[in-house]
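Researcher: Structure prediction, please.
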Amino acid sequence: MSFKLNIKLKIQNSESKIKTPMDLKQIAKDTTKTLVSYMTYQALRIVLAQLDETEPKRAYWLRQFSYRVSIQNGEAFLEALFQEEQRLAFRLLTVREHIAEEIADYLPEMLRTGIQQANLQQRTQQLERMTQTDPAIASDHPEQLEE
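Model: Predicted structure follows.
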């Protein structure tokens, strides 16, 4: 069970929705939808771990259910789960809400900091690549060999 984002599909879907080059409101909506699905995935992992300890048969059932029904779209997953096992669906809702409440305060700052650090690392690596000298090219230039 893994949470795989189909980036290409998401980009194509987002491009069709975005009316201006930087429709920040739509970007925020798309990001929120992705985060909600990710919180559902994390809630599933937590509930499975709890059930492994307390109710192994239910853990097995939920794990099998998650193999049959994709967690990619968290809301669709929950709708399907409500049809088969309402109690577990409500439990996932509760855990998902708890996760969101716990991370809501520091998530915006972590996002900003994470993007800044990742951008700095990418820029640093690119600058290093741009300024590296190729030893084969340096040997063609005698003035670089003299010291």
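Model: The chain has eight helices and no strands.
Researcher: Thanks, that helps.
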